[in-house]
Amino acid sequence: MEVATTSKISAPPWVAELLAEAGLGSGLQVAPLSTSQNKLSKTEIYQILHGTECVALAKRQLGQDALKREAAETEACITAASVFADCEGMSAPDVLAVRRDGGFLLRALVGTPANLAFSRSDRALRSEQIRRVAYALGILHRSEPVSMAPYTLGKRILRVRMRLKHFRENPPNWEPGWTDVMYRLACHALTKYDSISGKMRCQTVQHGDLTPGNILINSHHVGLVDFEHFGRNWQVNDAATLLDRLTMLCPFKGVQMSNNVMFDPADVSAFAEGYGEDPTTHKEFDVFACFELVARIFAAAERQSKEPLLLLRTAKRALNVC
């Protein structure tokens, strides 16, 4: 990566150290991109700019087990980048530098987040975009399994049970009737999981958080970013996450839904064609899809979202065919 030697970097010390380790510095500007925080940790991300082009991202986590989580994410990025190394038109971010006291530097990928890139007016273009993403995902899933412990749904299920109990006892002033629908959907997911938990398919390499915002796409390239939850997981996890989010981004009204009515059948068909199989036929797919929907309704209720009706319609459609 070549840069001009024109301006001095103004950056937090930890970012400057990463740039120096990577051999970058001159002609670059540093700007904060995002900060996120929960009860246990805080994540800071800075973008490294050469003119108007973002050439790298500096990321640091603070809080409980921060260094351990950073080490896992950098290893995941290295693994994913190696999987896509020989795949034309697909990539994951290269790790440029790692700081012993916390923080790492990633090469930025070029593209538009899929939640903005997926067409909302051209059905053929949208299907082609989904096929390309699904094809990249299939390559990742069929790569050699990483040496990580298998994922368990235990903690996720416990969170659903606890939050469901909380909302039943303290219903928010949100949307009339949502609590009953939410309760039925969560109970369905929990019951379905209990019935198939010992029969679920083998685990594969999974991105772990395949929301459209973590997919960068342009006319010739697909890039996957944010590998914080990368590892072994049930095969349908990524597909359920992505198709669930695509449903909320579907602009085509009056679509005749198939058996899996939570999803636009054209989106499912395009995904299956690119991926090589239809993930919605797996017996555990409904479980993951329902948990994704449950999590989003919980989050919408907590923040008093303006999208309750759309979420509730999706939940009711799910219940009608489950």
What does it look like?
It is a single chain. By secondary structure, this protein is of the alpha+beta class. It has two domains: 13-108, Phosphorylase Kinase, domain 1, CATH 3.30.200; 113-321, Aminoglycoside phosphotransferase (APH), C-terminal lobe (Aminoglycoside 3'-phosphotransferase, Chain: A, domain 2, Alpha-Beta Complex), CATH 3.90.1200.10. The chain has helices at residues 13-21, 66-83, 114-117, 123-141, 154-169, 178-196, 237-248, 265-275, 285-302, 308-321, and strands at residues 29-37, 41-50, 53-63, 90-91, 95-98, 104-107, 112-113, 203-206, 215-217, 222-224, 231-234. Strands 1-2-3-6-5 form a five-stranded antiparallel sheet. Helix 9 (285-302) runs antiparallel to helix 10. The longest helix has 19 residues, at 123-141. It is globular. The protein starts with 12 loop residues before the first helix and ends with a helix.
Stated plainly, the CATH topology of the largest domain is called Aminoglycoside 3'-phosphotransferase, Chain: A, domain 2
**Main sheet record:** 5 strands, antiparallel
What is the second-level CATH architecture of the largest domain? Answer: Alpha-Beta Complex
Structural class: alpha+beta
Side-by-side strand order of the widest sheet: 1-2-3-6-5
